[in-house]
Specification:
The protein is α/β, with parallel strands linked by helices and 465 residues long. It folds into three domains: 233 residues, FAD/NAD(P)-binding domain (3-Layer(bba) Sandwich); 99 residues; 87 residues, no CATH class. It is 40% helix and 24% strand. It has 15 helices and 19 strands. It has a seven-stranded mixed beta sheet with strand order 6-5-14-15-16-13-17. It has a six-stranded mixed beta sheet with strand order 8-2-1-12-19-18, with helices on both faces. Strands 3-7-4 form a three-stranded antiparallel beta sheet. α14 packs across α15. It is globular and about 70 Å long. The relative contact order is 0.13. The mean pLDDT is 94.
Length: 465
């Protein structure tokens, strides 16, 4: 491994841009190649997720590269979930009982531009756009691209290749099609898709509803969510089955059907979306899936990172954060292993794979929690108790959500293991009537911790997770 090695990073999205910046800071020569035009010079496509939830793990990655404070200028803090019922009544379910814990709505293109600008400012980074990767010759360490401006084929040789080209990764496909090593791949789709709509800024500026929360309209099988943008608008996302439902993407085919559905399920949201029908039919319907694969590296010259290695559904708000954490973990492995690239890639995958599998599982769990359970009295009772624990005993209790979202020094795997046990403990104790109001909050916490420890012990004995 030498600082003279040229790094070829394929995909200039969030993960690729952060990786390019950090590797350049370490002294490597970096070429960052993207198939799309430079998003700093074009308009973001309508209907593609334009804001994301940035939390501690992602902030840690930005901090590593020295751009955290600039990124925070793009953030809107969201303190909790604002739950909307069918009558229009709302209540705020805070993400944490600790005052300093919240997630941030941030513009995807805005953050991507910030990272591209920071990378481009490095003298050892070259940015190349409108060049789509067609294939990778893994054995010969060669990447083939089509230049979309000239139509010509371009070949890059003798570089260490990083595939950060997203869920539809061409680099991963080249590994899958390569027959000289065993490559495992799975892609699991939800029966739901998503479509984005906009709550525009209020006349004269400002927000039409509370900007300090992530809004959720949970309806069992369906769900609407909304995240605030800096310009006063909200990006609204509808999650709906494709088929086999009274209302689904297959049968919402006319303006009348769309309005009937929204007025029945989300009447208070309809009043906020004057362009609902137009945007519903103009914006695309996107799929939701989980991708797992292994190995992530090949021949010691090619490595998958970010969504190319482990795409997840968006319901824990951790896709971007997990990709940024990839860069942090890789940076740590580089620091600890001053050997060849193959040894480094193997050590990185060994350190990271279990955690990315865990957050994929957690994201699917949270899909069901958000659309079905957030409005249930039992779930609300559990969350009320957890936020009370966190407020009164901030060093002794972290909910599963806090373990995942606000504890960047705890692995996703450990957050899954402990968080599930805590959830089970609280629900069991509530169901058994063992947490009556006559107990003090400390007595309730002691019972929950004792039951959690028992569940963790049982899980270890029987080999759960």
């Amino acid at each position: 491994m030498s600082k003279q090695d040229n790094l070829l990073i394929i995909g200039a999205g969030l993960c690729g841009s952060l990786l390019a910046l950090r590797m350049a800071q370490r002294g490597y020569s970096v070429q960052l190649i993207e198939k799309r035009p430079d998003l700093r010079a074009v308009t973001q496509d309508a209907g593609r997720s334009i804001n994301l939830a940035l939390s501690n793990r992602g902030l840690k990655g930005l901090r590593l590269a020295g751009v955290e404070e600039e990124a925070k200028k793009l953030c809107i803090p969201m303190l909790g979930r604002m739950i909307h019922d069918k009558t229009g009544a709302t209540f705020l379910s805070k993400y944490s009982g600790r005052n300093n814990e919240y997630i941030n709505s941030i513009s995807r293109p805005g953050l991507n531009m910030l990272l591209l600008n920071a990378a481009e400012a490095m003298p050892n980074v070259e940015l190349l756009f409108n060049k789509g990767c067609e294939s990778i010759d893994l054995e010969n360490n060669t990447a083939h691209f089509k230049d979309y401006e000239t139509g010509e084929m371009v070949t890059y040789n003798d570089a260490i290749i990083f595939g950060t080209d997203g869920a539809g990764s061409v680099v991963r496909r080249s590994m899958f099609n390569h027959r000289k090593f065993l490559f495992s791949f799975s892609q699991e789709w939800l029966t739901h898709g998503y479509k984005e709509i906009t709550i525009p800024a209020a006349e004269g500026g400002g927000y039409r509803t509370d900007s300090g929360a992530l809004h959720i309209w949970p309806r069992g099988e369906d769900m609407l969510i909304a995240l605030p943008n800096l310009d006063g608008s909200f990006t609204v996302t509808l999650f709906l089955p494709y088929s086999d439902s009274d209302f689904c993407f297959d049968n919402l085919t006319t303006p009348e059907m769309v309005l009937t559905y929204f007025n029945q399920e989300f009447p208070d949201a309809v009043a906020l979306m004057p362009n609902l029908v137009t945007e519903f039919f103009e914006n695309p319907t996107g799929p939701l899936g989980t991708i797992r694969c292994s190995p992530w590296n090949c021949y010691g010259n090619t490595l998958l990172m970010g969504d190319a290695a482990h795409a997840i559904v968006p319901f824990y708000g951790q896709g971007m954060n997990a990709s940024f954490e990839d860069v942090v973990v890789f940076d740590e492995v580089l620091e600890d292993h001053q050997g060849d690239w193959k040894a480094t890639f193997n050590a990185y995958e060994k350190a990271r794979k279990k955690d990315t599998d865990a957050i994929a599982t957690l994201a699917i769990d949270n899909f069901h929690e958000m659309k079905e359970h957030t409005a249930s009295p039992l779930f609300q009772q559990k969350r009320k108790l957890e936020t009370a624990f966190e407020a009164e005993f901030p060093l002794e209790y972290y909910s599963k959500y806090s373990l995942v979202t606000f504890n960047e020094n705890i692995s996703y795997y450990e957050a899954l293991r402990k968080g599930r046990a805590q959830d089970k403990a609280i629900l069991n104790l509530i169901a058994d009537g063992q947490l009556p109001d006559t107990l003090s909050l400390k007595e309730k916490l002691d019972l929950v911790q004792k039951e959690t420890a028992s569940i963790l012990h049982d899980d270890e004995v029987i080999g759960n997770l």
